[in-house]
Amino acid sequence: MLVLSAADIARVFTVRDAIEADKKAFVMQARGECVVPLRINFDVEGSGGGQSLYMPAHVKGYPAPGGATGVKIVSVYPGNAAKGLPVVPATMVLVDEETGLVEALLDGTELTRLRTGALSGAATEVLAREDARVGALFGTGGQAASQLAAILEARPLAEVRVHDLDPGRREAFIRARRAECEARGCRLVAAASADAAIEGADVIVTVTTSAKPVFDGSRVAAGAHVNGIGSYTPDKAELDPALLVRADRVFVDNLAAVLAEAGDLVMPIKAGSFGPERVAGELGSVLDGSLPGRSSGKEITVFKSVGFAALDVVAAREIVTRAREAGVGRKIDS
Ligand SMILES: NC(=O)c1ccc[n+]([C@@H]2O[C@H](COP(=O)([O-])OP(=O)(O)OC[C@H]3O[C@@H](n4cnc5c(N)ncnc54)[C@H](O)[C@@H]3O)[C@@H](O)[C@H]2O)c1
To answer: Most buried one in 44, 105, 114, 167, CB count within 10 A?
Structure first.
């Protein structure tokens, strides 16, 4: 069995690799080649509020001739912060398709960061205007750095405005990322308000824990592309319904999951603001050419994601293959 730490993963799997892995998962999802059973989720009694989640998936025929199978184990233990432990620890288990034996254990936190950033990277690459130069990032938590890296990989943005309700967190994020962004020709600018972040922005990412819309959808510029990454329950929405009404094309990562879980769409559909046909389809269908994406520089496009386990399995498969080739990681007897 191969064990891969966060540092091992970073050695063999780049932001570009993560975007390409997500694109593969999107296409397989749109073609019905992913088996993604509902995740198992329960409260752990006696743990002081701990929750345990199990996210399995099987991807058919990738890599050929077999497939890839695995499960991501994620825990949410709010009390861990006081113990100096991660609040949302995660581990990815990749299973050998032929034997059913566990093939590899990967740091699931790093895997999640990379594959979640890559959601925005892939969607921006496919849907944003080619000449997009101004970005806006809402949220500067654990997922934000990989979101920023992935949109910069997708488009040569000259400026990204950064907004967070917590100004201290926003400033710390900008300090930590400034040099890396400047090396890519991109200026990070602190945006004190949501309006300041949005004005004239070409690529917008929301990756917050907000239950309510984080910016005014009526202020989004024509031609903008928006990635909604944070909200994942039917009662929470980061995206303003006004944006979803204004948008020319709305895409999702997984249609069934988004229509069941994303309050951004569930709530306005329930309120009768629009029907599920507001969603043009899955990003994977645009990637495989069966659905048109953006058709003009004036259109507003939206991509809403709640994530799905096949993204983790495809990324894990790619990482393990690269790590074996490079001799990275620790082998242990199983
Ligand atoms: N789509 C996916 O596949 C996927 C994967 C992983 C995480 N997520 C989700 O992404 C979200 C962010 O994750 P994280 O680990 O970075 O969280 P985090 O708690 O580390 O950071 C969230 C940040 O959002 C900020 N925030 C909250 N409301 C805001 C608002 N209205 N405007 C601006 N900033 C605001 C907070 O101050 C905080 O800094 C979570 O909801 C998480 O569940 C989605």
So the answer is: 114
